[in-house]
Specification:
The complex is a heterodimer of chains A (111) and B (113). Chain A starts with a strand and ends with a strand. Chain A is built from no helices and 11 strands. In chain A, strand 4 and strand 5 form a beta hairpin. Chain A is mostly beta strands and 111 residues long. Chain B is an all-beta fold. The chains are: A mainly beta (111), B mainly beta (113).
């Protein structure tokens, strides 16, 4: 079992739709969780950190469920410009905490 | 402030050739990382460094070596390139501690024929 798993999609949604992605992790001692956005053939860029209490940034909401070991990302009122791959990152304990990426979830927003 | 830069941006090698990829950051970050990204595979950690003069293996270290002689630079070497090393290579850095936000370079696209 991979340490960080995501549904690769693609999620194909119309503009204005609400879409949610989950990311599960296997190590219960994991710390620090993030969502990154990656556009085609570009470097990943931080979308938002995920806090235990949940956090919101405009149309984006991230939540952490430690009991079930998953994080989620909710996008409301989808825009064409939201089309991208969304990567979850979980810091897994080793000698130091190691950022471990999921495979990414592809989102396509169509008119 | 350039952030994280990578040199070169593109490279084509023949099997058995060697090369070094350079990652430089001007943010005084302690931690630096090298990843490779293959289609459908996400980013996989090759090697990382928690400070100047230190390096450690990641998930897929075979066939690669690294050095961190200066805090701002992290070099990734391929001693004898193989077609399986055809990939996009990303470098990243974090201020301090593996739990910080990562800042990525623009990537190096390497093809090994």
């Amino acid at each position: 079992r991979k340490e960080v798993e995501q549904d690769p999609g693609p999620f194909n949604v119309p503009e204005g739709a609400t879409v949610a992605f989950n990311c599960t992790y296997s190590n219960s001692a994991s710390q620090s969780f993030f969502w990154y956005r990656q556009d085609c053939r570009k470097e990943p860029k931080l979308l938002m950190s995920v806090y235990s209490s949940g956090n919101e940034d405009g149309r984006f909401t991230a939540q952490l469920n430690r009991a079930s070991q998953y994080i989620s990302l909710l996008i409301r009122d989808s825009k064409l410009s939201d089309s991208a791959t969304y990567l979850c990152v979980v810091n897994i304990p080793g000698g130091s905490y190691i950022p471990t990426f999921g495979r990414g979830t592809s989102l396509i927003v169509h008119p | 402030n350039a952030g994280v830069t990578q040199t070169p941006k593109f490279r084509v090698l023949k099997t058995g050739q060697s090369m070094t990829l350079l990652c430089a950051q001007d943010m005084n970050h302690e931690y630096m990382y090298w990843y490779r990204q293959d289609p459908g595979m996400g980013l996989r950690l090759i090697h990382y460094s928690v400070g100047e003069g230190t390096t450690a293996k990641g998930e897929v270290p075979d066939g690669y070596n690294v050095s961190r002689l200066k805090k701002q630079n992290f070099l990734l070497g391929l001693e004898s390139a193989a077609p399986s090393q055809t990939s996009v290579y990303f470098c990243a850095s974090t201020p301090a501690g593996g739990t910080d936000t990562q800042y990525f370079g623009p990537g190096t696209r390497l093809t090994v024929l």
